Amino acid sequence: VGGLTSIRELVLSGSHLPGPLPAELGLLTSAQRIELGSTSLSGCLPEELGALTDLAYFQADDNSLSCAIPSEVGLMDALTVLKLDHNSLEGCIPTELGQMTNLVYLELGDNDLGCAIPDEFCDLASIKLIDIKYNDLEGPIPDIFYALDNLDCFVAQGNRP
Question: What is the pTM of this model?
């Protein structure tokens, strides 16, 4: 994968690619779209994804990804869509995701994420959809969420009160 540094789109959804995501994915710095949904991926998301600062769309849903979401994902400045739902991701949602001011769709539902919803989500000025359903999140919804003018859909059922 690392030899494809000038590729703009990598679409492998529905392919059978068992195993971990290679760290070399972070070398695809010209990529604007990466689709890896339903590919039988496992293991952790590599920190190197943070180098993909021009990436607008990242999809790795419906896999067996585990571990915590690396904080480096928050460095993906151009990202408008982040789909990591239907995996086994764990740990807290990184507060750094709140720095992704271009993010429009955030789908983290159906994982094993814990802790509270980060207050930093209030900085997601472009956000239209936040799906964090069926995790192990706890605590109240931050009051500042009600000031997100563009938020059309917030899905959080199936978490702890």
Answer: 0.95
